[in-house]
Each structure stands twice: as C-alpha cells, then as structure tokens.
Design goal:
It is a single chain. This protein is of the alpha/beta class and 270 residues long. The chain has a single domain, classed as Rossmann fold, CATH 3.40.50. The chain has eight helices and seven strands. It has helices at 23-33, 45-57, 72-86, 109-137, 159-179, 197-202, 212-222, 231-242, and strands at 8-12, 37-42, 61-66, 91-94, 140-145, 184-191, 252-256. Helix 5 links the parallel strand 5 (140-145) and strand 6 (184-191). The longest helix has 29 residues, at 109-137. The N and C termini lie far apart (39 Å). The protein binds nicotinamide-adenine-dinucleotide (NAD).
Length: 270
C-alpha cells in the first residue's frame, strides 16, 4: 500500500512475550508493510529482533533496539539515537503494558510505581523527547495501546493496570489538543480481549484455573462477535490512525473490542 512510505516509526514494546503474534509485533510489521522504516524497541532484544526479522523477510526496513522504557535515561538515549540516525520520528507507537492481577490490597506502593513507570510515565518521557522534532517538522503521530480495562472492570481485579490504561487515554487527549497547532495528532487504540501469547502467561490464572482452552473459550464468549480479537485486528486500527487517512482524527480513542464495551451481558449468556 505504501501509505507510510518515507516515514520513520518507533514502536516501544514491539516484541512479544511468547511465540506468536503480540500486538506490538503486529503493529510493527503492519507499519513496515505500509512502507515505514520501523525501529522496534523492547526490553527483550531477542523479541525485538524476531519482529525485525519478520519485517526484513517481508522486504521492509528497520532496526531492533533493547530498551527498558521504565529507565528514563535509557529511553531518552534510545530516541535521541533514532533522531540522530534517521533525522526524524514521524510515528511514536507506545505499546508497553504491564500489570498485577489479584486483590488490590496486594498491590504495594512499589508495585504501583513499577506499573505506572512502565505504562504511563514512559509514554510521557518518550513523547516529550520526540515532540520538539515533530513540532519542527510540522507533523507527527503519537499513539498508544490502552485497554478495555482502562474503561471497564474486566471481571477480576486489575487496579493499577486499569488505572494507568485509563490515564493513557486522557493523557493523549490532552497532548493532542496542545500539539494540534503543530500538525501533530495523538490517539489511543483500545483493544478488548485479544488472543496474544501474553494472555497465556498473565491472564489465565484470573479465569478460575480451568485451563488455557477454557480461558480462551470464556473470553471468546464474552465478546458479541463471538471471538477474541487478533493482534492484526488491533494493528489495522493502529495503521489507520498512523496514516493520513486519519488526518482529521485526533484526541480520541478507537475501540477494537468486537462489541464488548457496548454490552452489559448477563453472566449466563457470556
Ligand atoms: N492481549 C490482550 O488481550 C490485551 C488487551 C488489551 C490491551 N492490551 C495491551 O496491548 C499491549 C500489548 O499486549 P500483548 O498482549 O501484545 O503483550 P506482550 O506482553 O506480548 O507485548 C508487550 C511487549 O512489551 C515489552 N515490554 C514489557 N515491559 C517493557 C519495558 N519495561 N520496556 C520495554 N519493553 C517492555 C514486552 O517484552 C513485550 O514484548 C499491552 O500494552 C497490553 O496492555 C492487551
């Protein structure tokens, strides 16, 4: 399609925590297929490299970088290096999301700070690092992956995760308004229940311990469309928002949830 041709994109959290398609991996590949040069940054260099290998195999271009986004200095240095090497950042996609499920009273202040640092503060650090260059070039797009957990209770306690995901949405609304005069857009992608490798590691225990297949069936039944989303369902929304097709869309959020947020289903029909 080539709609992101000549654009430089940075995807923070562009790997996947297990084999298969995570959202950041799919977003990175979708951006590259659309012609962007994609810098895939992840705490886990091998996960970033795996995404880059897929990009290269597809005929795309990019690089893989190891960075822990909770480390302000390392994150700033990573983005400065991209600006120095590429001369610009057109798209900043923030995809990192961590949490601690379970009773909220078990979430310590240290847990809260760890989750906030990775999910929210890092977006601020990254955005303020690339905004001067975006303002100077008169264009840019900043996007982040929030979650349905930032809008609704999801059936089990996930307090710090949900609160930080909610804050992401409003953060980008405010950033969008402040930077609109400079030709910069900012929006949030809000996935519902997505079938990624992560859910086997971090969500399964919150579905009553009945096993992976039962957890997946329960999540599929929760969604009006009768299935969980795929990482590429989310990546399609990200690509649209990153592209000029969304040139009049800023300061808002796009749900990719199979109708989940539109319903208050009774448990027996879920
Ligand atoms: N899977 C779902 O159902 C779902 C639903 C709604 C929202 N989300 C959100 O989508 C995003 C991606 O989820 P996913 O399911 O693809 O999970 P994922 O965990 O596979 O992807 C996140 C990536 O971020 C990286 N990462 C984690 N902490 C980091 C840090 N401190 N610094 C740099 N990189 C770090 C991980 O290594 C991983 O590669 C997350 O923000 C998640 O909260 C997922």
């Amino acid at each position: 399609m080539g709609e992101l041709r000549d654009r430089v994109a940075v995807v923070l959290g562009g790997g996947s925590i297990g084999p298969g398609w995570g959202i950041g991996k799919a977003v990175s590949v979708a951006f590259a297929r659309a012609g962007a040069h994609v810098v895939v940054a992840d705490r886990d260099l091998s996960a970033a490299q795996e995404t880059l290998d897929l990009i290269i195999a597809d005929g795309g271009t990019g690089s893989a970088v190891a960075v822990d986004v909770a480390d302000d200095v390392a994150l700033g240095a990573c983005l400065e290096a991209v600006l120095a090497e590429q001369g610009r950042v057109d798209i900043l996609y923030f995809n990192v999301g961590i949490g601690k499920a379970g009773p909220s009273m078990d979430t310590s202040a240290a847990d809260w700070r760890r989750i906030s640092d990775a999910n929210l503060t890092a977006l601020h650090v990254a955005a303020t690092k690339v905004l001067p260059a975006m303002r100077a070039q008169g264009s840019g797009v900043i996007l982040a992956t929030s979650s349905i957990a930032g809008m609704r209770e999801v059936g089990y306690p996930h307090l710090a995760y949900g609160a930080t995901k909610a804050a992401l949405i409003h953060y980008l609304r405010l950033l969008a308004v402040e930077n609109a005069p400079f030709g910069i857009r900012a929006n949030t992608v809000v996935p519902g229940l997505i079938d990624t490798p992560r859910i086997e590691k971090t969500v399964a225990s919150s579905y009553g311990g009945a096993g992976l297949e039962a957890m997946k069936a329960a999540r599929a039944a929760q969604c009006p469309l009768g299935r969980m989303g795929t990482a590429f369902d989310v990546a399609e929304a990200a690509l649209f928002l990153a592209s000029d097709r969304a040139s009049y869309i800023t300061g808002t959020e796009l749900l990719v949830d199979g109708g989940l947020a539109a319903t208050t289903r009774r448990p027996e029909s879920a």
